[in-house]
Amino acid sequence: MSGFFSLESPFYKFMSRLWDMLKLNILWLLCSGLAAKFVLEYFLLYFGLAQFRILSFLPLAFMGAATTAVYVVTIRMVDEQEGYIARSFFKAYKENFKRGCILGIIQMVAVYAVYIDFQFYRNVDKNNTLFLIVGVIAAVLTFMHTVYAFPLLARYENTLLNTMRNSYAIMIRFFPRTIFLVIILAIEFIVIFWNNTTVFLGILIGPASIMLTISGIALYIFRRIEEENKANMQESKADEISEEDKE
Questions:
Q1: Residue whose C-alpha is closest to residue 28's, from 237, 226, 211
Q2: Does 241 reside within a domain?
Q3: Using CA of residue 220, residue 76, residue 20, residue 192, what is the dihedral sign?
Q4: Which residues contact 108 (CB under 8 A, 6 or more apart)?
Q5: What span, in angstroms and rounded, lies between the C-alpha atoms of 195 and 207?
Q6: Which long-range contacts does 85-88 make (Cβ < 8 Å, 24+ apart)?
Q7: pLDDT number for residue 52
Q8: Least confident of 19-28, 51-60, 129-138
């Protein structure tokens, strides 16, 4: 029985990781502006200011920075070198604040545009398949340009434009693995929304768990690319040495 509760037991490691995910998820909820959004919306409705409800979306401008910070931590978790959760999160939040916020706003605008397009198709003209086609294409392109964007932002220094381009390129090159990721994420969403109990658990650890899943796939891909780049550099140096010897 003592072995079951030892620091090296699978049970202890599972509970420790679960606790880490809970802390990380709470930090994301607080720093992403999502919690502030619902609080502000409640007060606006409570005081009869429903016409200003759009103001409740302003705190969501911080979601990108918080999401990038979570990916910094979850990638380290996958790499088994996360350290202190809160300290690592806030350090990454500060370092990636500007770029993360901008990327988050770009993603939210793109997602909202897709949502509006589907609303037009659903409520305005269901006979016009153009809205449906445009919506599907826009949704796919949004996914392709952003699925690996935050992990890339968390791991590498690059411009936002190149970060989204690289996300698109990785998605195309590692298409089967991305499809596998989509399947895993779909299963996670089904489990989260299975019943009221799972929804509650999903609120507590869901977003961080989803980002941990993406981090696992993303880190595998990043390492493959890093190893290939390293091998190419070594081959290039070997070719240069060979050319110098010939001279």
A1: 211
A2: no
A3: negative
A4: 60, 63
A5: 17
A6: 85/20, 85/23, 85/24, 85/27, 86/23, 86/27
A7: 86
A8: 129-138
| Position 244 in a domain | no
Give the residue among 238, 237, 219, 217 at the shortest CA–CA distance from 227. Answer: 219
If one counts the domains in the chain, the total is 1
Is residue 28 within 8 A of residue 65, CB to CB? The reply is no
pTM flag (> 0.70): yes
Among 223, 219, 220, residue whose Cα is nearest residue 231: 223
d(CA 162, CA 159): 5
The verdict on residue 3 lying in a domain is no
171-185, 190-204, 221-235: range with lowest mean pLDDT: 221-235
| CA atoms of 95 and 197, how far apart (whole Å) | 36
Residue 143 lies in a domain: yes
Domain that includes residue 170, residue range: 10-230
- Residue 193 CA, distance from chain mean position: 19
CB 114 within 8 A of CB 146: no
Q: Please report, for residues 130, 153, 179, the alpha-carbon distance to residue 65 in angstroms, rounded to integers and kept in the order given.
A: 35, 10, 26
